[in-house]
Each structure stands twice: as structure tokens, then as C-alpha cells.
Specification:
TIM Barrel, three-stranded antiparallel β-sheet, zinc, tRNA_ribo_trans-like, glycosyltransferase, transferase, metal-binding
């Protein structure tokens, strides 16, 4: 399913074939948590205007609202949201551990209360797989325990062992579900998740164990970008990457900034997702090829240039910085929509340009030019 086309250092250029289409990697997955991008951007926008290859939706949120049974009755996520390309569903594990104020973790799974209405919910590996099967996503993520950093070593070790046991249960349940006659997507794929906090030995040992599960179509690094310093995140990737299968995609969950993506590609990562482009956009922070723009700043009040003169997204093709600033200052919803469209287009163009650089053997030059630049605030004179 995964073909490695080219490699430059650790950076990889590949393609991943699924039942819903072939994904060119490295790839950024646009985050539509509840089957929609926040900011009023539709599936048609993603497909026709924003170069989106993969949409990411969340198991926990869709289980709570509208309910995975509802999505199943509507024919699965692809029909429900009118999207015919690949969809990856997060297992719900991160949300269980980040949103649930009261939770009890046991071997069978996790007992917790909904963050919406407080009702009691139980989710374990089988339940996560069943929900994701109802959603009929292209790629389902294994149910894991995401431990916040920093964490005590012995607890982290026991958590890794539990996550491994849960993975085996996820595999068994997905095999069963994919064999059922009434399953919508019988070709649903499973990605395993590497955990171990920031402990090198736990990360490496856990990767060595889970990579033996041949059923898994890909492997993710989870539990990072949750507050630890960036250099620690890069260090963990560097420790784990040599032990990840070469013939399967690697996914760094929840990352990140444009610079993070470039640096993680340089360390061997293929898949990315993050709420940052849409979340930041809704507050007026926009990414450009010269750095970061805070569009509500007064200096843009009479600026007749596009947000990014190097960008041909719908926002930059049609509107000025002055107008987008006015929309934000007037609290017009169009401002957020245009900014979200711009940022998603930017992220998808970023990974497109990374792929082109890898194809042409110049990724090192691309990284040297853009990794630091894209993290900086746009200078006043540009």
C-alpha cells in the first residue's frame, strides 16, 4: 500500500494507496474534528480550492454528536460530509485523556463523563474500533493511552504495555468488523501508535514491539507536541525513526507549525495533522512564505496587497490585507472563513512544495531557506 519513491537523508517521498484514493506524501491532513472544518469551510472548498488530500475527523466527538449510529445510518462519513477522498479518524484516546475531567483507566478501557452533557461513557479498544467502523473512515487509529508530559517513568512503562495490549485487541476487533456483511468500509486500515513519553528506552522498546504487528498499515508517534520543548520532540523522533518500518507510512500526531513539519520531514515523517492553521486563522494569525502575519494589526489598515503576494489561494486572489483586517475588526464571519481557507491552502501548498523539492533532490536547500523563515513574524517592510 505504501511505495517509497525517493529519499533524501531521512526525508521520504512516497505514496500511500487506499480504497478512497492515493495519498501523496509527505501530507498534511486538514482537521475537521466533527466532520467539518471550523471557520465555515466545506468539503467542496477543501476539494476544489484548497488542495486537501486527507481529512481528519475525531471518533470521540462524532460518538458524542451526532452519534456514530447516525453517521452509519447516513452511509458513513464520506456520504455524510460529501467527501470522496481519504479520511483518517483519531481513535478518541487523546480526547478521553485531555477533555474528561473525571476518568478511570482500567484494563478493559476507560470510564469517563462526556464533556458535553456529563453522561457516563465507556470506551475501550473494541468500542473505538466499532465507532470508527460505523464512521467508515479510510484509516482508523488504534486506541491508546496518551500520557501527559512529564510523567513518572514506571507509570509510562506500564502505560506502554497497556497500549500494546490494547493494540492487539484493536487488531482482532477490526478483523472481525471488516468481515461483517453490513460493514460499510471492509477495507478500513489500522495505524498503531507509539507511546513512551520522553523516555528514549520506552519509545524505542515500544516501537520494536508494535512494529511486529504486520496487520498495521502505518505507525504513528503519539504523545508529543503536548507542551514539551520543540527540541525534545525532535529528539524523540530521531530516537524512534530508525526502528520504524521503512515500507509503511509514519505519522506524527498533532504537529504542528510549518517549521515543525519541515523539520519532522527531515527526520523521516510522512503524515501530519494539527488544528493550528484553522484555529490561528480564526484569531487573525495567517501564515505566509515570508513569515507570520497578524492581520488585525493597524499597519494593515490601508494595505492594498494580498495577505501573501506569493499565494494564489481564494483569499489572496481576491482580497486585500486591508479588507481582511476590516472583516476581523468588524467581527464579520467572512474574515475567519477567508483566513482559514488561506492557512489550509498554505499548509497543503507547503507539503506540495516539500514533495516537489524531494522529487528534484533539493529538500536540503528548501529546508535551509524556509524552516526558520516560516516561524518568524512578517517584517514590517515586507
Amino acid at each position: 500500500m505504501f511505495r517509497l519513491i525517493k529519499q533524501e537523508g531521512c526525508a521520504r517521498r512516497g505514496e500511500f494507496t487506499t480504497v478512497h484514493g492515493t495519498i501523496q506524501t509527505p501530507v498534511f491532513m486538514n482537521v475537521g474534528t466533527s466532520a467539518a472544518i471550523k471557520g465555515g469551510v466545506s468539503s467542496l472548498d477543501l476539494k476544489n480550492e484548497l488542495k486537501t488530500q486527507v481529512e481528519l475527523c475525531n471518533t470521540y466527538h462524532l460518538h458524542v454528536r451526532p452519534g456514530d449510529e447516525v453517521v452509519y445510518k447516513m452511509g458513513g462519513l464520506h456520504k455524510f460530509m460529501n467527501w470522496d477522498k481519504p479520511i483518517l479518524t483519531d481513535s478518541g484516546g487523546f480526547q478521553v485523556f485531555s477533555l474528561a475531567k473525571l476518568r478511570r483507566i482500567k484494563e478493559e478501557g476507560v470510564y469517563f463523563n462526556s464533556h458535553v452533557d456529563g453522561r457516563k461513557i465507556f470506551m475501550g479498544p473494541e468500542e473505538s474500533m466499532q465507532i470508527q467502523s460505523h464512521l467508515a473512515s479510510t484509516i482508523a487509529m488504534a486506541f491508546d493511552e496518551c500520557v501527559e508530559n512529564p510523567a513518572e517513568y514506571n507509570y509510562s512503562r506500564k502505560s506502554c504495555e497497556r497500549t500494546t495490549r490494547w493494540l492487539k485487541r484493536c487488531i482482532a476487533e477490526m478483523k472481525r468488523l471488516n468481515s461483517l456483511e453490513d460493514t460499510i468500509n471492509k477495507d478500513q486500515l489500522l495505524f498503531a501508535i507509539n507511546q513512551g513519553c520522553t523516555y528514549d528506552d520506552l519509545r524505542i522498546e515500544h516501537m520494536k514491539v508494535i512494529r511486529e504487528e504486520e496487520y498495521c498499515a502505518g505507525f504513528a508517534i503519539g504523545g508529543l507536541a503536548v507542551g514539551e520543548p520543540t527540541d525534545v520532540m525532535y529528539h524523540v523522533i530521531e530516537q524512534v525513526e530508525p526502528f520504524m518500518p521503512k515500507d509503511k507510512p509514519r505519522y506524527l500526531m498533532g504537529v504542528g507549525t510549518p517549521s515543525n513539519i519541515i523539520e519532522a520531514v527531515a527526520r523521516g515523517i510522512d503524515f501530519f495533522d494539527c488544528v493550528m492553521p484553522s484555529r490561528n486563522a480564526r484569531h487573525g494569525t495567517m501564515f505566509t512564505w515570508n513569515g507570520i502575519v497578524h492581520i488585525a494589526n493597524r499597519r494593515f489598515e490601508t494595505d492594498s496587497r494580498p495577505v501573501d503576494p506569493q499565494c494564489d489561494c481564494p483569499c489572496c486572489r481576491n482580497f486585500t490585507r486591508a479588507y481582511v483586517r476590516h472583516l476581523f475588526k468588524s467581527e464579520e464571519q467572512l474574515g475567519g472563513r477567508l483566513a482559514v481557507m488561506h492557512n489550509l491552502y498554505f499548509y497543503n501548498t507547503l507539503t506540495e512544495r516539500i514533495r516537489e523539492a524531494l522529487d528534484e533532490g533539493r529538500f536540503a536547500e528548501f529546508r535551509a531557506e524556509y524552516s526558520a523563515k516560516l516561524a518568524q513574524r512578517l517584517p514590517d517592510e515586507l
